Amino acid sequence: MTKRLNSSDYLNLFLNDVPLMDVRAPVEYQKGSFPCSINRPLLDDNQRHEIGICYKHKGEESAIAMGLEMATPEIRSQRYKEWREFCDQNPTGFLYCFRGGLRSRTTQQWIKAQGIEYPLVTGGYKAMRRYLIDELEISLTKLKVINIGGPTGSGKTRILKKINHHVDFEGIAKHRGSAFGRNPLDSQPSNIDWENAVSIAFLKHRHNAPNKTLFVEDESKLIGRVCMPQNVADLCKTNELVLLEESLDNRVEMTKTDYIDLLWPEYQSIFNEHAEQKFSDYVLNSLDRISKRLGGVRHSALRTSFEQALKQLFNSGRSDLFQEGIHILLADYYDPMYNYQLEQRAEQVVFKGNNKEVIAWANAS
Known about the structure:
59% helix; Oxidized Rhodanese, domain 1; three-stranded parallel β-sheet; alpha/beta; 18 helices; 2 domains; Rossmann fold
């Protein structure tokens, strides 16, 4: 069997979703990683900190000696098990650390002693991250990107997923983008994770369909806690716009379906006996986040309405009482903001239509 060599072919790694074993400490991995990477650290957070101090003051040899001293038989056994499982499951993968240096080489040597030859990414995380930052900038200048816009509840994400060439910013952010947009576990990627994933998605489009228009949902700079890098946020403000037109009644029904009917079973599955409290907190706390903009009287009335709707949902499984509150939110709160923002960008609109018309137009672009 031909020995696989270390690689700096970052384009291949990202275009082909090559599995990556990240041997950095967990705290580093949580700050930023790549979609196809899994954290299998050489050092835990405390060990990394102590060895880093040693390396800084006493040099590489002393740091290696400290690392070996910390690597008890139990720790080595656990590391070997995790690494072997990854290597066995991902025979075409690579490993990496921060710069492709000491930790990568150490991991390579340790698993080689166990009979496994496994290549590393030269330059490590730092080089791959730099590559994606640079490629994102190139993508933003080369690609034709059009935003799918429309009032809240018009089904923009549903439509986007039916367009052949698209990138789902909200899906990558794990957030629907509104005050009610968080997922049941309120989990989101780091800003770096989001940017890396978007850069890879744009990169794939450039290489697989360079002459096709790419569609994204019209977004503000913040998607929940994820903050877009400025260059992507600027692009979203200046892109041409396709507007999805939908009746208010249909928007109310779609909003109820997405945020109540489909979400409530998720809460039940995740939280079991605590589901009612968790779902109530989600609905009411989300409403409270926009209380100042709603105004005291309207916020109080909506809170009472949603509290009654929640009681009905929990007692009977019916969700129709949510319609009144959702109607008020869309018509009196979200729509005036949307209409004002649209006035500022009216000249960017290149097409308007219902869901079938927008899908057909976009897929012909």
